[in-house]
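Review this fold:
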Amino acid sequence: MNNRLATPWAPSSLGYTLPGSLLLKMHLGEAPEQIPTQIDVRRGAAKAATKVDGGPIDRILRHHGGNARITRVFPAARSLGRQGRTHLNFDDKEQQFGMSRTFRVEMDRDTPVETLAAVLRELPEVESASPHHCCRTPFGTAAVQPAAIDLAAAWAPRDMVQAREALAYETGDPSVVVAIVDTGVALDHRETNGRFRGGYDTVQLSATDFAQGVSLLGETGRIDTRPVDEYVGHGMACSGIMGARGEQIPPGIGGNCWLLPIRVLGAARLTGKPQPVGLGALADIDLGVKICVDLGARILNMSFGTPDSAVESGMPRPHADVIQYAASRGCVLVAASGNSGKDEKFWPAAFDEVIAVGSVDADGQPSHFTTSGQHVALCAPGERVATCALENRYQYATGTSFAAPFVAAAAALLMSRAGRRSFRFDGTNAKEILTASATRWMRGVRGYGAGILNVYEALQELDRQINADPATEEMLYAEADAVAAA
């Protein structure tokens, strides 16, 4: 987050902190069951709790901040549609990865949340406590909206990754769902109309959360199932790369796979910046990630991030719990590496479970802005990519934000192919196949992963692995015997 937005209630914080807000995670077996979820409180189906444990935690909260309003961050997957009861019936994985025991605590605006969090961390029943940070979408530059798209030129980035050949080889399975965890979408765009499954909006920001100079735009304070973006167009650009019908731009690389839009970033205008940006509180983002997994998404595209330099020493890495939760459910996680132009880590891209994607230019060279590092898996086109904009328009998008959807869409085709051939496919073999099949760099290029995405070669590599699998060989013999017997 821009340091100009630093606030007096978080004097030592390197990132932007929501005033009076902190995140509390309790150890396994210590979390009270009765505290309702944010979803139920926002929908009027429950009231926020005023106590946590009736003991030391509540005494500390009263001492440092007066009245507390406490909600559970995550709903249970089995209770997602049960209004007023979404805090019940967490399963073993949700318990293990902290989904059932993470709480959002809202105090008076001037509460010294860093001091409060530090005191809470000393309690034996508390696993972690931290100020509630906010991040933005730093992974795209100002979009260029042309009067018309040059279709031949628009194919160039797709041809770099052999998208035509890939889509001719594997058209994509509608049962494979790709989540776009972003700023939301335009639900009625001609290119993506009929491509979206019902999504979610988890943005819960308010004007009082920000210092002067930040103006929130549109709806930001409710949780519902309309992930509509009217201002930014960031999520819409990602959607077009993965799922466009091909009317005025090339068809989406995800083929017939469905898209699940999850709005986790609200829109805001910053002083001196004409282009609106996406802003999101970490708990809102994490809630959206969990919900899309629980709704059946198998691929997650995450074109947002927080630099490691903004994470204070000893604090949890942003999104760590939901990333582990999603990976445990077999999801393929894809994230933009960042636009800093430096060798550094952004979260969630730097997690081992995530495929971190950098950007290349039209010549197949690493973009000058792309973040590098040992954690980067591979690169994809990320400069002047023709894609969708808001209001049935189009744009040329630049940034690692728009390289990541190339890889997410490729993973969707791989998962479709694996499903057709009864082969197990998850995030581990997705990263392995995508990096093994990438077009290798010229000598001397380091820090940008294995090379440039090659979707067609990735599908070929998957088929080679399936053909070499003993189970596949036994199945082929059984089929041949059946034909001979007939």
In short: Residues 1-14 have pLDDT under 50 and may be disordered. The first strand starts at residue 16 and ends at 26. The chain has two domains: 3-136, 151-467.
